[in-house]
Amino acid sequence: MTTTPDYDVIVVGARCAGSPTAMLLARRGHRVLLVDRATFPSDTLSTLVIHGHGVAALDRWGVLDGVLATGCPTFDTYVFDFGPLVISGSPLPHPSFAIAPRRTVLDKLLVDTAADAGADVREGVTLEDVVVERGAVVGIRAVDASGDRLDVTARIVVGADGWNSFVARRVGAARHHEKPVLEHAFYTYWSGLPFDAFTTFIRGDRGIAAIPTNDGLTLVLVGCPYAQAADFRRDVEASYLAAFEREPELSKRLRSATREERIVGGGVPNFLRTPSGPGWVLVGDASYTRDPITAQGITHAFHSAEWCADALDHVLTGRRGFDDAMQQYRQVRDRAVLPLYELTTQLATLEPPPPELQAYLGSIAGNQAAMDAFVSVMAGTLSPAEGMPAPA
Questions:
Q1: Whole-angstrom Cα distance, residue 254 to residue 264?
Q2: pLDDT of res. 391
């Protein structure tokens, strides 16, 4: 006799990839358990930025109005200040805008939306292991917030638990296209420092970004090459503030602003993982992790959730076999992310751009259509091949 699993899908991780995956599957009538060791609202390291495609996903899911109702500002201009030249534009297609909500706001809304869709949401759950039978994942062993056991089965377990995914490690998901940690980024929030654009300053081997968010605050980030991270960390505050001396106008503005929170940060490796295997699937950062310099993490998590939910719906309804659906899921992911992955990891070295990129940037400065195309690449709305054509 075959025992019916407790759920169709268990999703481990309830932030920007997990909650949308659970929500989309629950809306299609599937029995979904969503678990996370955190409780919500809670914060996590993040650049916060959701580019235009991600904003469109929130709108499709009925979440965007809730995010905007928190007072999260919108912006449609991206500024890349390289010192000798400035590239400023708006991502194509027009009109579109980006947002950068605090994760305390965004993640709570996503978790609540998953619950409203019918997912069984359990917060404060500590995963102990995945359950494997006859070579396939069939469930999880966990402990809930009250200390009670939560040992449950499912047809499929989804790992949405970040770049250091417990699920990925337990199933032995292979990495490929690997690159090491390339930079460390440190940030905090400032009041009295208004920005109405996603603004980046490149000053030697320091990258500085200013991103407007909730409550009239601006996230200000400083990135340094990985080789300098240990020195930076010896006195994070002094190192962070010293970076602004390379941009006097910003330094002057900071002196009249107020720092509202402690400085946090770190670095991540760069890789893609094999995103599925018998009884398991990876989504979001568990599937693909890249340096935050292009701020693609949340937007990619939303894409990944939609691709994954579509593939799993085909499997759960019997329209496609698991292996066939997962092969397509991987192909869609790789085709979408690899071109920008290569550009992101090049930029993350914080080394001077190669001569051909320097020449390209010089050639488009002041050409609004070309600058719009370039920022579209940074926002992920155009591929590098579309937005950065090779010189004729």
A1: 18
A2: 52
